[in-house]
Structure formats: C-alpha cells, structure tokens
Amino acid sequence: MPMSPSTATCPTRPGFIHFLERMNEGLGRFLGLAALLLVIVQFSLVLLGAIFSYGSIWLQESRLYLNA
User: Fold this and answer.
1) What SS3 class is residue 55?
2) How far apart are the first and last CA of the chain?
3) DSSP conformational letter for 52
C-alpha cells in the first residue's frame, strides 16, 4: 500500500519542512480535539440549563476560552 506524501519520509525533503509538517499535523489533532471538547461543553450547558435549570459559570467561561 503506498504511503501518502504527508506520512512518507523523503530523503530530499529539508528537515525544517518536515518539522513544520509534523507540527502542523500535531496542531491539527489538538485543535480537532478542542473543537470536540467545545461541542461537549456546549451540549452540557444546554442540557443543564434546559433540564435541570442549572447554570455553571466555569462551564460558560471554558466555552468562551475554547472558542477563542
């Protein structure tokens, strides 16, 4: 099975570009998880407010910071 260009190591690729690609992949994974966490926090806020009539300041603040 052929490897994709982003995962294959090429001896002619400069080290700095390889570093930037790895950093970009790591940042993409981190931001993807942060987006998922944002959805979970927002869902929790809606659920807590609609069903239990409860609001949480720290959850609202964490939603704000995750969105930023």
Assistant:
1) coil
2) 40
3) S
Alpha helices in the chain (DSSP H): 15-51, 57-67
**Pairwise CA distance, residues 46 & 68, whole Å:** 20
| Residue 39 phi, psi dihedral angles, 5° rounding | -65, -40
Q: Are 51 and 44 in contact (CB under 8 A)?
A: no
6-60, pLDDT tens digit by residue? 555 555 668 888 999 999 999 999 999 999 999 999 999 999 888 888 888 898 8
Asked whether the predicted pLDDT for residue 68 surpasses 90, the reply is no
Torsions phi, psi for 27 (to 5 deg) = -65, -40
pLDDT for res 6: 57
* CB-CB neighbours of 45 under 10 Å: 17
Q: What's the predicted TM-score (pTM) here?
A: 0.66
